[in-house]
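Tokens in:
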């Protein structure tokens, strides 16, 4: 079996440099050095000894799942699908909640690597953060070089196996539905600005506005939860009282919007996004854009537990409109 010294010798670098690159050190190295070390690792089939022992035995049975918040219905559904596949494969699932803190996500990736999990699934949205993305890529690359497998859900700034919901097309469907009903001025309750999911869904709605020759929708940013959705509805209607429809970029915020409208006895259309189980049970039943969340989780775990592929596998998940009672002509 190849040693770290063999890798360093093949790459023409010091053992310390090879170790830093393989272990995902934050100390900067040139792209050329990194490429040489990674090529040497691949050529020599190098695996660090601790991981080699785990892979040779039967102990490497745990898988790690990194989510923003498993109590959020969106992530609860995704985790249900992840666990279904992992349990069938005899795996223990370690769930890590980042609460949308990029630094905590990096810490959890490092912790899961230290625990030598067989695979990781990153189930939360990507971030618009260049430094974070660079650091995450380095840590995941080091983990994969040690024999681990990675799959992500959503749009992330990395190349690898992924399950990618069509958030932009779903946003377009939401806008298209409202404009087709005759609405001219709509408001949008968006999620956090730094998430790629927010950007993609909002981009789709804005594209629908242009396609229908309508003014750009009014946007308020919230936190992807019920209470912030209710507060954002109040802000939207105070600033733009002529709005006749609201598109909330997830169902939790849409439920908050419906609650606010009920409290102030105001009747305007509301559409959500994701089709979480609660969407059909609220009054009025929520029109929404459906994503098969549990299936997305199952797909991601299946990718993570399957052998590595020479080329990245990207499974795209289409969105669909589910029309219920919460949307109607103005």
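Residues out:
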């Amino acid at each position: 079996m190849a040693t770290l010294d063999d890798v360093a010798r093949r790459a023409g670098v010091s053992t310390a440099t090879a170790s830093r690159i393989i272990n995902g050190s934050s100390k900067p190295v040139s792209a050329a050095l990194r490429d040489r070390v990674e090529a040497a690792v691949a050529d020599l089939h190098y695996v660090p000894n601790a991981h080699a022992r785990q892979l040779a035995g039967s102990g490497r049975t745990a898988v790690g799942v990194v989510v923003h918040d498993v109590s959020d219905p969106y992530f609860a559904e995704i985790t249900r699908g992840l666990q279904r596949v992992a349990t069938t494969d005899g795996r223990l699932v370690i769930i890590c909640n980042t609460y949308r803190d990029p630094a905590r996500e990096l810490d959890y990736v490092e912790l899961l690597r230290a625990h030598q999990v067989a695979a990781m699934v990153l189930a939360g949205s990507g971030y618009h953060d260049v430094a974070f993305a660079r650091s995450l890529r380095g840590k995941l690359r080091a983990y994969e070089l040690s024999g681990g497998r990675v799959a992500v859900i959503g749009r992330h700034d990395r190349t690898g196996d992924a399950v990618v919901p069509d958030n932009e097309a779903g946003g377009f469907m939401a806008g298209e539905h409202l404009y087709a009903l005759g609405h001219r001025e709509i408001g949008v309750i968006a999620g956090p600005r730094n998430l790629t999911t927010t950007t993609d869904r909002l981009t789709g709605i804005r594209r629908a506005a242009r396609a229908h020759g309508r003014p750009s929708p009014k946007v308020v940013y919230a936190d992807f939860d019920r209470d912030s959705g209710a507060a954002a509805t109040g802000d939207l209607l105070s600033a733009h009282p002529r709005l006749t429809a609201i598109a909330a970029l997830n169902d939790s915020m849409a439920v908050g919007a419906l609650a606010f409208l009920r409290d102030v006895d105001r009747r305007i259309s509301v559409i959500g996004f994701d089709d979480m189980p609660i969407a059909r049970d609220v009054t009025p039943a929520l029109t929404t854009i459906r994503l098969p969340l549990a299936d997305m989780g199952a797909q991601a775990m299946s990718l993570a537990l399957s052998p590595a592929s020479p080329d990245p596998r990207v499974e795209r998940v289409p969105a669909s409109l589910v029309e219920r009672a919460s949307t109607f002509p103005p």
